[in-house]
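Q: We require from you a single protein entry containing the residue sequence and its fold in token form, and nothing else.
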Amino acid sequence: MTHESERNDLPVLTAGSQQPGNLVRLVEEGKITTVMLALPDMQGRLKGKLHDARTFLDRFESEMCAYVLATDWDMNPQPGYRLTGWDDGFQDLHVVPDPGTIRRLSYLPGTVLVHGDAVHHGRPIDVAPRQMLRRQIAELASLGYRAKVGIESEFLLYKGTAAQARRRGYRGLTPVSPYNLDYALDHPPALSAFCHDLREALHAAGCPPEAIKTEGAPGQIEVTWPYGDPMTACDIYTVHQHAVRHLAAQHKIAPTFMAAPQTGIGSGLHLHVSLWRDEDDSAFWAPQPGVLPELLQHSIAGLLTALPHMVPLYAPTGNSYKRYRPHSFAPTRFTWGHGNRTCAIRITGEQSNPHLENRLPGADANPYLALAATLAAIIHGIRNQPKLPDPCTGDGYEDVETCEVPRTLDEALTDFVDSSIPSTAFGPDAMDHYVHAGELEAGALAGQVTDIELLRGFDRA
């Protein structure tokens, strides 16, 4: 629910357009009282502190325990990370704000959000998700290219608060819409009200969506944004997740960004990517319809060759792999095709200016890591020029000649460890860090008795 009086009183603070000096003025006028300095963690969640705005302006940085980049999904400190651990007492790291990311959160009166970067002894921390992406952006620039990125976010909404869902063990939840409302324009009032407030909040934060629509599963929503800078696209996605959770609580509904929140239902995080030489010179421009430029061919081949070895970066949980099912619109094989939604990599957009859609990441992916893997795979293709297989022109789920998407996190970790491609792209320290994170996640799931095991075996075994 937006705060109309505040919206009328304050200018819209949009990332990149406002300067820190503008923030200073608003703080001095008492219109901004709180600065939320946020560091995206390994899972892509915003972590940080609520700073008194005047104190923040005096210091313009913060400290945070380094365990925020060395933990599990439950924020439990974990041993085995080189970054920090019990052996060094979990030391602090510095969080340096990125001045171009100041955004006002209309649903938190008097509050701005600022993204920050993790720094230790004056150097960026290589395993931090924003730095992982920044490294690939720089590598791409060294080849003479810059990326433009658009993100599609899918998530589900259920009736009742998150606390009520938790008390029910997340079982028997009722979606906010009773059936498939894909592309529908007649939404239930509660859903319409939420979508209205989400749109307003994103506009106020300088993150205006391109579109909001209902998706194929009951209670499923898709939000898309226009093309833009890669880092900004990921920052916007984290603002969006933050807004969804706060607004859902106000509307007494429960959101989830799980990849497969129910059997037979999947939510994706699709990444649309194109390469440019400068603002008006598309490197994917096709002079003849149906003829893919060489750079685009190398990029596709790189994605198909490298992404199979970087799966834990865009499918980080055991649940991620339950989304990859035949005829689910989530890919099960590393295929590519023109406008083909059964493929992992889809060529879409204008015929003369096509772009790539990576359909592999699920809603539970960290956007910075998923995009870093995508750009690293494109870079691999440009530099190594692997052979491009024929496009898939039919049902990609039936293309048995192509490589399958891993069925489990354990299987994905094996390829991640054995391949030199991710290590070359991200360096050994980052590799060790995210291999360990994957092993911790896989270990947390191992040996757990599930509801389906009880259902199938309790009185039958």
Notes: Residues 3 and 106 are 6 Å apart (CA to CA). The chain has a mean pLDDT of 91. The first helix runs from residue 4 to 9.
